[in-house]
Write a structure and sequence with these properties.
This protein has about 400 residues and is an alpha/beta fold. The protein folds into three domains: about 35 residues; about 190 residues, no CATH class; about 90 residues, no CATH class. It has 14 helices and 14 strands. The strands form four sheets. It has a seven-stranded mixed sheet, with helices on both faces. A three-stranded antiparallel sheet has the order 1-2-14. Helix 12 packs antiparallel against helix 13. About 25% of the residues are buried.
Length: about 400
């Protein structure tokens, strides 16, 4: 993009270069608008993210995937529901283990082996929703995973929560009881596959009188599905057995004591020396190039450029690229405008009108004039010079003929 130019005299051009301050003033409005828009977007994101819980089966989540409906009904029935998100808070919330149920849903797999050990025997009734392989290995070795389950499931057992529900939504996971004839199995979905298994007493790692209930029907507890079939009866009976319910969903806070490996620990030993060497090479190259080019030259603006210098520069460019026709057309444009002015034609006159007026004024055949102004194409530098001389002769002849006697 070339700088704007303003002609101040027939022999010179003035180049006006915008200053940095002028450019900044022109851009100030758009910069301010962009900052305001960014501030509004950040405020909306922070506001919406901090006021609405949308986590799966969160006790405060009122969306279809939350569990707020079930929790509020439990509270209306007199159950004290304590919501926790760390093992420290969960342990502190269990004041009377014999009259407390703990509901655990490790949806993001934050529980470590030490935290699972702390869950064993923490309360009279431990309800674990969709436990994984590592969870079962520590909490209930007599239970194994059996894949995903979907559809409606019938109770088909004497377990109080399942009998009260009769039929529930089974979307979730299935489990098998292995090597434990005393385990209570409910909600079958296939051969030896169940969505509710309870083990107690000697079958637990600590061998006490507490019970562990493995539940795979996660969809049945959500706000969207809890009102269907016997889902509400299953959740209320199973989780409302005791006066206190601790609703525990592990979070990243449970792993606060574990220090994750740093980028330096994961990187090979040669990375840091190679990066330092590359930095030194860059600094040396920058210093070398900076000294070679020298300091910047400050030039006062505006800069006055003579028209003759511009003409010579363009002529050298045309010569270097062998653009003879383009150079001749540049000369023709000037000649046509001056011949039209000498003939008294308006500035909007066509080339054909200029040819006709010049031939009438000089009393010549219009074809040679038209060839000179339009059709002729130089094949060599000599022809270009000859045509430029003919243009000069034509222009002078028209100027002389148009002068009053």
């Amino acid at each position: 993009m070339s700088a704007p130019t303003t002609t101040t005299s027939p022999g010179s051009e003035t180049v006006l270069t915008p200053t940095v301050g002028r450019v900044l003033r022109r851009s100030l409005f758009w910069v301010a608008a962009a900052l305001v828009a960014a501030f509004v977007v950040i405020a909306v994101m922070v506001g919406s993210g901090g006021t609405k819980d949308v986590e799966m089966l969160s006790a405060a989540n009122a969306s279809p995937t939350g569990a707020k409906a079930l929790v509020e009904v439990l509270r209306q029935q007199g159950v004290t529901v304590i919501v926790t998100d760390s093992m420290t808070e969960t342990t502190a919330a269990v004041d009377d283990p014999s009259n407390t149920s703990v509901f655990v849903y490790d949806r993001d797999f934050y529980l470590t082996a030490d935290l699972r050990d702390e869950l064993v025997g923490l309360a009279e009734n431990l309800v674990f929703l969709e436990p994984g392989l590592d969870d079962l290995e520590i909490l209930a070795p007599a239970i194994a995973q059996a894949g995903d389950v979907s559809g409606e499931l019938d109770a088909d057992c004497d377990f109080p929560a399942a009998s009260a529900a009769e039929e529930v939504t089974g979307d979730g996971r299935g489990y098998r009881a292995i090597g434990d004839d005393d385990a209570i199995t409910c909600l079958p979905s296939g051969k030896s596959v169940f969505s509710l298994i309870q083990v107690a007493g000697d079958d637990l790692p600590n061998g006490d009188s507490s019970t562990l209930t493995v539940l795979g029907t996660s969809a049945a507890l959500t706000n969207e599905r809890v009102g269907e079939r016997g889902n509400a009866a299953l959740g209320l009976t199973l989780l409302g057995e005791h006066d206190t319910l601790v609703w525990y969903i592990p979070t990243i806070d449970d792993q606060a004591g574990e220090t994750p490996p740093t980028l330096g620990d994961l990187s090979p030993d040669w990375v840091i020396p190679a990066a330092m060497l590359a930095l030194l090479v860059f600094l040396a190259a920058a210093f070398w190039r900076g000294r070679r080019l020298g300091p910047l030259v400050v030039e006062n603006l505006p800069v006055t450029v003579r028209a003759s210098e511009t003409m010579r520069g363009r002529a050298r460019l045309y010569e270097r690229s062998s653009a003879r026709l383009r150079a001749l057309d540049s000369l023709r444009i000037g000649t046509i405008s001056r011949v039209a002015r000498s003939c008294g034609l308006p500035t909007v006159a066509t080339v054909e009108e200029v040819v006709g007026a010049a031939s009438a004024l000089l009393g010549r055949d219009p074809q040679p004039i038209r060839r000179l102004l339009i059709d002729a194409e130089p094949a060599s530098d000599g022809e270009l010079v000859a045509l430029s001389d003919e243009l000069l002769v034509l222009e002078r002849a028209v100027a002389a003929a148009s002068r009053p006697a």
